[in-house]
């Protein structure tokens, strides 16, 4: 199965291709950046090139120091503008390595091979790259779509349950935004249909708004408090799970308690935890909100779900936001 999404810039496109086996991943990189755990599990089947750089997955590894290390490796490999970097890993590894690739020589060719469900359904498409700064998530980044994304569901066979749950949670977010049928695919554990359905929703949105000046902001559903929950937990709460926790909160912020309860019930049926850990206080969440990228001069942009496939952008000034959060947090 092959899909192609053309983004809003005429000269930028991403081809998404699905293969059945790892051996069918036919790319010729000048450098392979690979998650160390993926290398351990599949290294003997990922013989894409001899120039391999291992990185450790997880939010703690998305640092400027890690980017500098990749730049040094790219320098040693003498990568030029027409060189190709292939990244095999989950969302954090793809974020990190894609950031390095986007800034080396002002951008080299990039192929992403997502190895987690979360990265397959969301992070691999759309071009966002990022590193964390001073304990705050995704403070520095670029928009640099990969020219290729290769999906191989075989990677999911060894995915830990917690990582599978993170991916299901991110797919649940996409279902709320643009395709309720994704929930049915998730209930049936039919990831061969869930993944392309999620990418179709995201591809449509990103194609219309690559730079996140309008509709693409909808993809931030659940992320405003989700990122805060991640940071406040010391990143022990996974990204997808934190986003799922933030989705009903966003519905409550919009004043729709009944829809928030429906979202919690559907999430529960998928095995997704939406209750914020009792150890995370509103004070901590408010502290991390100060670093939120969606803040403008008028206030902070919240994505509020009004119903299935119906989300809107709402700008809240600091006082209104605090009062609403205090009410939700009770």
Q: Which labels suit this protein?
A:
330 residues, alpha/beta, Rossmann fold, Dehydroquinate synthase-like, alpha domain, 2 domains, 7-stranded mixed sheet, two-stranded antiparallel sheet, 43% helix, globular
Describe the structure.
It is a single chain. By secondary structure, the protein is α/β, with parallel strands linked by helices. The protein folds into two domains: 2-159, 3-Layer(aba) Sandwich (Rossmann fold); 212-329, Dehydroquinate synthase-like, alpha domain, CATH 1.20.1090.10. The protein is built from twelve helices and eleven strands.
Helix and strand element order: EEEHEHEHEHEEEHHHHHHHEEH
Give the helix/strand class.
alpha/beta
Assess the beta-strand content as a share of residues. Answer: 15-25%
Low-confidence stretches: none
Overall 3D form: globular
Quaternary organisation: single chain
List the helices and strands and how they pair.
Layout (H helix, E strand, L loop, with lengths): L1 E5 L6 E6 L12 E5 H7 L9 E4 L8 H13 L7 E6 L1 H13 L5 E6 L2 H7 L4 E6 L2 E8 L4 E4 L9 H18 L2 H7 L3 H18 L14 H10 L6 H15 L3 H13 L12 H8 L10 E8 L2 E7 L1 H12 L1
Parallel strand pairs: 2-9, 3-4, 3-5, 5-6, 6-9
Antiparallel strand pairs: 1-2, 7-8, 10-11
Helix pairs in contact: 2-3, 4-5, 4-7, 5-6, 5-7, 5-9, 6-7, 8-9, 8-11, 9-10
């Amino acid at each position: 199965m092959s899909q192609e999404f053309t983004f809003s810039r005429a000269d930028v496109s991403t081809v998404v291709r699905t293969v059945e086996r790892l051996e069918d991943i036919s790319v010729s990189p000048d450098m392979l950046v690979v998650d160390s755990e993926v290398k351990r599990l599949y290294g003997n089947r990922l013989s894409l090139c001899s120039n391999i750089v291992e990185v450790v997955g997880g939010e703690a590894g998305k640092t400027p120091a890690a980017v500098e290390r990749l730049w040094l490796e790219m320098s040693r490999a003498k990568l030029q503008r027409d060189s190709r970097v292939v990244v095999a890993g989950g969302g954090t590894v793809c974020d990190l390595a894609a950031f390095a690739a986007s800034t080396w020589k002002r951008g080299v060719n990039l192929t992403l091979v997502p190895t987690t469900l979360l990265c397959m359904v969301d992070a691999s498409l759309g071009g966002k790259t990022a590193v964390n700064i001073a304990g705050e998530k995704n403070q520095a980044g670029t928009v640099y779509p990969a020219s290729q994304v290769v999906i191989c569901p075989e990677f999911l066979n060894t995915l830990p349950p917690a990582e599978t749950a993170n991916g299901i949670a991110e797919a649940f977010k996409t279902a709320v935004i643009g395709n309720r049928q994704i929930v049915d695919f998730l209930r049936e554990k039919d990831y061969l249909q869930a993944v392309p359905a999620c990418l179709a929703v995201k591809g449509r949105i990103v194609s219309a708004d690559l730079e996140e000046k309008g509709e693409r902001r909808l993809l931030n559903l659940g992320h405003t408090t989700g990122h805060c929950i991640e940071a406040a937990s010391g990143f022990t709460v996974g990204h997808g799970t934190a986003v799922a926790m933030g989705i009903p909160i966003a519905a409550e912020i919009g004043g729709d308690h009944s829809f928030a309860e429906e979202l919690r019930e559907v999430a529960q049926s998928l095995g997704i935890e939406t209750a914020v850990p009792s150890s995370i206080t509103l004070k901590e969440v408010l502290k991390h909100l100060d670093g939120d990228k969606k803040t403008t001069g008028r206030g902070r942009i919240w994505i509020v779900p009004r119903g299935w496939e119906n989300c809107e952008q709402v700008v809240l000034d600091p006082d209104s936001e605090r009062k609403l959060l205090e009410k939700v947090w009770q």
